[in-house]
């Protein structure tokens, strides 16, 4: 058998210790599949004395993690520290510049600096892999990069954040409101103490930007992802969606808009109404799912655990096995010099149906004001539902479903209503996902 692939591991949290357990547990099987053993030669973390439930004595401890890039007994550096910048990025640059392989689960760093790191990896002929950065243990990066390599993809979309999916599907199951279910998610460990990155859609946007670059062969552009989280979704929206034949899910979507002279890329994360019969409607709890639509493959569904120590460790070690085999390819499907520049699409050009919920004062003429704004903006209303007020003098919720039409018309209607004293809260707009 060939010489071992020697790795240095930066970060010994749940994923880092999961990597150690996986390599120790499946050592012989991994060696057989990789064609050579995979050995950990060095580790580091902020607190050396903390008990992590694994024996670290066989491995060399490195006080300064950036020294890992300089060690002669390290072939690949695995970064599980996190953060889009700072020490993690410094380590990535140092490892690749030294010609060492670099494996990471750091979605934020890949979304913000993946292009730079891919360029450096190409110059140094060093492997750069990040399967664990998107959707935990689901092999969606390899699935898009290799499994759909012969296809022109039309659209990539899916449920990319387990915290949001848990909150929304539990709201659906229990009838509870957003704040209550977020607290429950935090108690169960599905949400961070500060959940902003998850519930505001930023985590899903990081993953979507990575998938779009891989699937479409475009230069990664996180800043072009239009992002809206789930904080405005109420229990009443969940119930109304159910009555109409839908569930509410936070969906990230990347698709080409070819209506103009040059193709433009629409990247968007926002809550959507998903038809009961759509595969994503059955995805509940802290699960991720990605759908890719190819011109020859048709619709492909990748589904599984989107986070956690074991699934994420599985993805990290899968990258290491690929590197050990000498099979790692271009990080974003094509050589970095061949990645295309693609301008952001105008979301107003999207044609579809929407669910719109207004929270209004309980007084005469409000409904007429809303429908007049829709008429003047060219929005055709398919159905209109008015819920009774919660208490004397309280607010009333008005929900509508539009006929198919350009999104810009809905935007114009809401602009006409902006500042109206009849509206007591900003409207919530959720696109209806097509089958």
UniProtKB/TrEMBL annotation:
It is an enzyme of class 1 (oxidoreductase). GO terms for biological process: methionine biosynthetic process; threonine biosynthetic process. L-homoserine binds at residue 192. The keyword Protease does not apply. The active site is at residue 207. NADP(+) binds at residues 10-17. PROSITE patterns: ACT, HOMOSER_DHGENASE. It holds the Pfam family ACT. One of its GO terms (molecular function) is NADP binding. PANTHER family: HOMOSERINE DEHYDROGENASE. This is Homoserine dehydrogenase. It comes from Qipengyuania gaetbuli.
